[in-house]
Amino acid sequence: MIDRVNDKTVKIIRLVSGEEICCRFPLHKDQLPENSKLLRLQEPMLIKYVPRITEQGISDYIALVKWVGFTDEKIVTIPVDKIITICNATTAFTKRYTDLAVSLKKAKQ
């Protein structure tokens, strides 16, 4: 089963649909019980690989976009059986995600 501990690191989640999402897990008190078939994700963002042509050739630009649009919900619930894997994000990616999340909060204010 998925480890639902209070972990503030940024996670990369690959879904059976092929989508990759970056997010954090909510605090333990805001998470569902261990035996639940659902998992809560905090501020999930879709990782989009955008190809671009440079002088060195084709490279990918990685864009982060709000995964579930048209909502102000900060926590999204998904079925556990739709998840293929969960990994910790790198330090650089964690900083990028965190900076973007903070920017989005400031923009709403």
Residue-averaged pLDDT: 88
Oligomer: single chain
Unreliable spans are 1-6
Task: Return Rg in Å.
Answer: 15 Å
Biggest sheet record = 6 strands, antiparallel
Summarize this structure briefly.
It contains one helix and six strands, in the order ββββββα. By secondary structure, the protein is α+β, with helices and mostly antiparallel strands.
Description:
The structure is a single chain. The chain has one helix and six strands, in the order E-E-E-E-E-E-H. With 109 residues, it is α+β, with helices and mostly antiparallel strands. The protein has a single domain (11-104), classed as SH3 type barrels (Roll). Strands 1, 2, 3, 4, 5 and 6 form a six-stranded antiparallel β-sheet that branches. Mean pLDDT is 88; it is low at 1-6.
